[in-house]
From TrEMBL:
Protein name, per record: Aldehyde dehydrogenase domain-containing protein
Organism, scientific name: Coemansia aciculifera
Domain of life: Eukaryota
Keyword Cytoplasm found: no
Ranges where the Aldehyde dehydrogenase domain occurs: 21-488
Residue ranges of coiled coil: none
Length: 494
């Protein structure tokens, strides 16, 4: 048994509700795997609607009757979040080991994700004591004083994807707690362990009153029950388009409508212009696509290469993809890990088959399982792919890049990308100012990278257009999404 599993500081068979580790009311359990080997590393409860109800009731009582909202100042919430950031920092080695084991992510990548996680709690702590309203001068009656106060949205139900368990938890939970909300959190069913570790640390700080943060584990059943629960004021969802649409439909069907933010999939284009540095760009494109084994909502998966450099660029791209080190995730030399589970592994292999047989795309490299164990697939690059091919338009969520047929004019690319179902991210590689300006102004994508890819900061909002969803994570915009304004009108002559 891996050393971290033998010294977990929490009991993974329990769930964290109302400030206590409790037994689930359900008898069903979920197997948790190590995707590197496909071995079972833990068994956790598969929560039912009763567990969910207890978690929501706890968050509801904590919000309406507890001290977190009603007694704590913003500065006290700030200090609680800062203490939590320090607690995560002090346990980061354990969390990194656990995250790498449960996700198959290369340990170096997990370290960067932990840097981000800690930074996010500190960043959003800084907003907790800076909630501002506005004074609005009376328009018709000088005796009226109008002003707004911003109040927390209430109980927030979070449903997370499996691909960045601890980091996406921080994206959601840090701003929500800073704003004074209370939380019920459901991680992806494949990757619950670092969420439980997080709950353990939050508890250990002693700074979060009971019911402020609660965890439920499981998949569709408990996720749907959370979306359907009438005491939840906001749903923050990250996942696929199909589930996101289901969540939106459900939140409109409950007795009380509630606000929703949905962070969904992507099929993000990259454009290589004639003046690009081809060696540098090939490496940036490969990491832009293959980071997290391609299980990245903003992965660069549709690549446009200018006709004048197409033939020169392909061998560089092939070499960069083949140079990626696939090895044990805990080895510091490893650059790409396995897919998360058998379902995702089968899905990616099926798309590789579709690329070859149905889309008739040419294979530049990869296309096969790797390492002979677990859920590993080689970094795969197709070229001369039609922009309307299935592998070029559907989200694969694996290490598969489609280099499209060569293009001649940037305007042509922009016109086609306007019809892209998704609008999460895009990239352009050029030093030409006019092309950069045209691309960044015209493209309807939530994030546009120029001569880099995948860099994200706590203070820059992240989110999509069209089927990539709505709402923003990170930045002030995300914090503001957990607040609602109330308008107060006071007659001072009364
Ligand atoms: P998924 O849609 O299968 O599941 C997402 C979450 O929803 C899981 O926790 C799942 O248990 C839960 N769920 C499933 N059915 C539900 C229902 N009916 N009601 C409520 N919850 C339900 O997605 P996934 O495979 O976990 O994640 C991959 C997807 O997430 C990709 O499409 C990826 O692009 C997207 N993603 C988007 C972002 C972003 O910020 N835009 C970030 C990460 C991942």
């Amino acid at each position: 048994m891996s050393s971290i599993l033998s010294r977990l500081p929490f009991d993974e068979t329990l769930i964290y509700i109302n400030g206590e580790w409790t037994k689930s009311q359900a008898s069903q359990t979920c197997r948790v795997e190590n995707p590197d080997t496909a071995e079972t590393i833990a068994t956790v409860p598969e929560c039912n609607a009763r567990d969910l109800d207890l978690a929501v009731q706890a968050a509801y009582s904590a919000f309406h009757d507890g001290p977190w909202v009603n007694e704590y100042s913003g500065a006290q919430r700030r200090d609680a979040l800062l203490a939590l950031a320090t607690a995560i920092e002090e346990s980061r080695q354990d969390i990194e080991e656990l995250e790498s084991l449960n996700t198959g992510k290369p340990i170096n990548d997990v370290r960067v994700e932990l840097d981000d996680t800690i930074d996010l709690f500190r960043f959003f702590a800084g907003y907790a004591d800076k909630v501002e309203g506005r004074h609005i001068a009376a328009q018709t009656n000088r005796n009226l004083e109008g002003y707004t106060v911003k109040v927390p949205v209430g109980v927030v139900g979070f449903i997370n994807a499996f691909n960045y368990p601890i980091c996406l938890l921080a994206w959601k939970v840090a701003p929500a707690l800073a704003a004074g909300c209370t939380v019920v959190f459901k991680p992806g069913p494949q990757t619950p362990l670092t969420t439980q570790y997080f709950a353990h640390l939050l508890h250990k700080t002693g700074k979060f009153p009971k019911g402020v943060f609660n965890v439920v584990l499981g998949g569709v059943g408990v996720g749907q029950a959370l979306v359907d629960h009438d005491l939840v004021d906001k749903i923050g969802f990250t996942g696929s388009v199909a589930t996101g649409k289901q969540v939106i439909r459900s939140t409109a069907s409950t007795r009380n409508v509630r606000c929703t933010s949905v962070e969904l999939g992507g099929k993000s284009p990259g454009v290589v212009m004639p003046d690009a540095d081809l060696d540098k760009t090939a490496k940036l494109v490969v990491s832009g696509c293959m980071a997290n084994a391609g299980m990245n909502c903003n992965a660069l998966t549709r690549l446009w290469v200018h006709r004048s450099i197409y033939d020169e660029f392909m061998p560089r791209l092939k070499a960069a993809a083949e140079a990626l080190v696939l090895s044990t995730p805990q080895d510091t030399a490893t650059e790409m890990g396995p897919l998360i589970d058998k379902r995702q592994y089968d899905r990616v292999l099926e798309y590789i088959r579709i690329g070859r047989d149905e889309d008739q795309a040419a294979l530049l490299t990869g296309g096969q399982p790797a390492l002979g164990r677990g859920y590993w697939i080689q970094p795969t690059v197709f070229y001369n792919v039609s922009p309307t091919a299935r592998i070029a338009t559907e989200e694969i969520f694996g290490p598969v890049l489609s280099v499209l047929e060569p293009f001649d004019e940037l305007d042509e690319v922009i016109a086609i990308e306007r019809k892209n179902e998704f609008g999460l991210a895009a990239g352009i590689f050029t030093r030409r100012h006019q092309d950069i300006a045209k691309f960044t102004r015209k493209l309807r994508s939530g994030t546009i990278w120029v001569n880099n890819y995948n860099a994200l900061y706590s203070y820059l909002p992240f989110g999509g257009f069209r089927n990539s969803g709505f709402g923003r994570e990170l930045g002030y915009e995300s914090f503001d999404g957990y607040l609602v304004p109330k308008s107060i009108i006071d007659d001072i002559s009364y």
